[in-house]
Amino acid sequence: MFNLNIFNKISSEVLTIKNDLELNSENQLITKYKTSTSEDYKKAIILIFKERGYSALEIGQLLEN
What domain of life is recorded for the organism (predicted)? Predict the structure, then answer.
């Protein structure tokens, strides 16, 4: 599992990526998370799930390898 306390400070790049990804479905976001090598990209996807009302446990289960 990963640490969900990574949002103490959200960079402008993460927010820009988040805006680009917001219209993606949950399945699309999961696929993009698992194939991405960018930490900012992954942070943006986690932020989207949090805003959609997923708990930390649910996010962890969705995104685990």
Answer: Bacteria
Q: Is the overall model pTM greater than 0.85, yes or no?
A: no
Q: How confident is the model at residue 10 (pLDDT cuts 50, 70, 90)?
A: confident
Residue 53: Cβ within 10 Å count: 7
* Tokens describing residue 64: 């685990």
| Terminal C-alpha separation, the chain | 9
Domain presence at residue 26: yes
- How many domains does the chain fold into? 1
Per-residue tokens: 28 = 């699309």
CA atoms of 19 and 8, how far apart (whole Å): 19
**Using alpha carbons only, what angle is made at residue 46 by residues 64 and 31, rounded to the nearest 5 degrees?**
55
- Does 2 map to a domain? no
